[in-house]
Design a protein that fits this description.
The chain has about 130 residues and is an all-beta fold. Helices cover about 0% and strands about 55% of the residues. The protein has two domains: about 1-35, no CATH class; about 40-125, Immunoglobulin-like (Sandwich).
Length: about 130
């Protein structure tokens, strides 16, 4: 006759909890239920201010990890950053780095700055802590 593993107690076990499982004839072992992370993905286009705003349909219990990315030609020297993040939403900004020379008293000085970019497609991965 085959032996089956049994769970001691009920089956209402939440993520991150442990329970004891009966081994064949050698006793019991502790088994952990892994913590399940909430993962959401978003895709959008930046507005005239170079920003894309997300409001989560359901708030996270703590600030999630926000991972933005852009698919663009590297010649544009685009950068993407998280401007703000909370349990209820986040704001992403896309900008282009600019380099230019400034002539001052006959010397060329390299200057740089950023210009926000509108109408850029942004992909965002949001993962609970």
């Amino acid at each position: 006759m085959a032996k089956f593993n049994t769970i001691q107690g009920g089956l209402n076990i939440g993520a991150g909890k442990t329970f004891r499982r009966k081994l064949d004839d050698s006793g019991w072992e502790e088994v952990s239920i892994p913590t399940i992370k909430r993962i959401e993905t978003y895709r959008g286009t930046t507005n005239a201010s170079g920003r894309y705003t997300i409001t989560y349909p359901t708030a996270f219990s703590s600030n999630p990890t926000v991972i933005p990315s852009i698919m663009a030609d590297s010649a544009y020297r685009l950068s993407v950053r998280v401007v703000s993040s909370s349990t209820t939403g986040c704001v992403i900004e896309v900008a282009q780095r600019n380099a230019s020379f400034l002539s001052l008293l006959g010397l060329d000085i390299l200057t740089s700055g950023v210009t926000v970019q509108n109408n850029v497609s942004v992909d965002i991965l949001v993962v609970s802590q």
